[in-house]
């Protein structure tokens, strides 16, 4: 196991009727900017519930943060903060709203051109660059990205998707009430299951470093998602299934299974290009790319793929190649059982457009991906061709 340091400052309020708990976590004299997306939080009455809990605090609303939040939209919220004297941000929504709100707080007191914040990649933005941030709270409505308990965001700008990381952007608290997710469309729920699954796998199916606790935790998340995946999609008000979905998605990317282990993230980087170019949902891009990546990188990931086959899918018969192939097939079947298609051609992408995706990877510097850096542009092309 590698050396690591771990700190996660986010308070979690999990379960039914936990919204009232935020009253004691936001200063009584705060002027709060509530950020949300396309309006479902408003139509469902959740925004009104939040405002009721906020009591006499001054509240300003900022709606319209889109899926794959756009830099230009977020900068409009920055202007609201500067003009209105906001001192607390409350994100009500899923990963895109939370990611967007993290960027908003980083950009609000950044002295230079805020597009520079998009150039750090996975290098954390520090107080040397951003002199001040506003605290963030979260009321989660979509279990998928884990953004409610981590320091990362992904922001869309100029036909690209850019990771933004900063310990300054951890939410102060997050309310995880599974009931607030009951009205989600089935496709968003399915996307969320795939997102959490691949988040976990990107930190687990790499190469062994004898990190037994992290491996067992990752395997537990994966098996839980397999067990409850279909139920949480088809029975939206099954509280127990949805509660496990919500917590699995949070645990998949709050940093706990990432400590002391190598991490991949190539599937996400390739998937981001598919979203940017073709508008395919993020979770769907992961379902397209990940089985193909496992197959293409079978030799490099062999030891962990065999462990995955045995511990997650209970596959113990056959030679090494057969067991790995069965595990990859099971993964695709699981995604498809949720109603997610797993081939590029099923989304209207043409074979000749693979070259365009590879060109975008090159343009964005994604030329040596994965835990080993061995996914070159040529390997990315082979993965996309497998996924076709």
Gist?
The protein is α/β, with parallel strands linked by helices.
Please describe what this structure looks like.
With 388 residues, this protein is an alpha/beta fold. It folds into two domains: 170 residues, Rossmann fold; 202 residues, Dehydroquinate synthase-like, alpha domain, CATH 1.20.1090. Helices cover 45% and strands 11% of the residues. The chain contains 13 helices and eight strands. A six-stranded parallel sheet has the order 1-8-5-4-2-3, with helices on both faces. The chain has a two-stranded antiparallel ribbon with strand order 6-7. Helix 5 runs antiparallel to helix 6. The mean pLDDT is 97.
Search tags:
alpha/beta, 388 residues, globular, 13 helices, 2 domains, two-stranded antiparallel sheet, Dehydroquinate synthase-like, alpha domain, single chain, six-stranded parallel beta sheet, Rossmann fold
């Amino acid at each position: 196991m590698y050396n690591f340091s771990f700190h996660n400052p986010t308070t979690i309020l999990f379960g039914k009727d936990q919204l009232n708990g935020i009253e004691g976590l936001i200063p009584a004299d705060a002027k709060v900017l509530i950020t949300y997306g396309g309006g479902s939080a408003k139509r469902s009455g959740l925004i009104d519930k939040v405002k009721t809990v906020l009591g006499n605090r001054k509240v300003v609303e900022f709606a319209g943060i889109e899926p794959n939040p756009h830099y230009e939209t977020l900068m409009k919220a920055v202007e609201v903060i500067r003009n209105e004297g906001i001192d607390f941000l409350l994100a009500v929504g899923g990963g895109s709203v939370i990611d967007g709100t993290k960027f908003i707080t980083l950009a609000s007191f950044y002295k230079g051109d805020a597009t520079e914040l998009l150039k750090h990649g996975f290098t954390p933005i520090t107080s040397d660059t951003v002199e001040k941030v506003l605290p963030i709270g979260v009321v989660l409505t979509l279990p998928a990205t884990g953004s409610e308990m981590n320091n990362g965001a992904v922001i869309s700008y100029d036909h690209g998707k850019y990771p933004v990381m900063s310990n300054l952007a951890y939410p102060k608290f997050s309310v995880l009430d599974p009931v607030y997710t009951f009205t989600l469309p089935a496709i968003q729920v399915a996307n969320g299951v795939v997102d959490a699954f691949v988040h976990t796998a990107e930190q687990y199916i790499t190469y062994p470093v004898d990190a037994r606790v992290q491996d067992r935790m990752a395997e537990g998340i994966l098996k839980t998602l397999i067990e409850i995946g279909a139920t949480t999609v088809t029975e939206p008000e099954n509280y127990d299934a949805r509660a496990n979905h919500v917590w699995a998605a949070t645990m998949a990317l709050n940093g706990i299974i990432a400590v002391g282990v190598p991490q991949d993230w190539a599937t996400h980087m390739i998937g981001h290009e598919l979203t940017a170019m073709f508008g395919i949902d993020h979770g769907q891009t992961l379902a397209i790319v990940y089985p193909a990546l496992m197959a293409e990188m079978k030799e490099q990931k062999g030891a962990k793929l065999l462990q995955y086959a045995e511990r997650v899918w209970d596959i113990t018969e056959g030679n090494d190649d057969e067991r790995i192939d069965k595990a990859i097939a099971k993964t695709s079947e699981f995604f498809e059982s949720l109603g997610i298609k797993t081939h590029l051609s099923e989304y209207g992408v043409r074979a000749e457009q693979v070259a365009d995706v590879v060109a975008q990877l090159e343009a964005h510097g994604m030329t040596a991906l994965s835990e080993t850096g061995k996914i070159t542009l040529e390997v990315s092309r082979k993965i996309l061709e497998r996924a076709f």
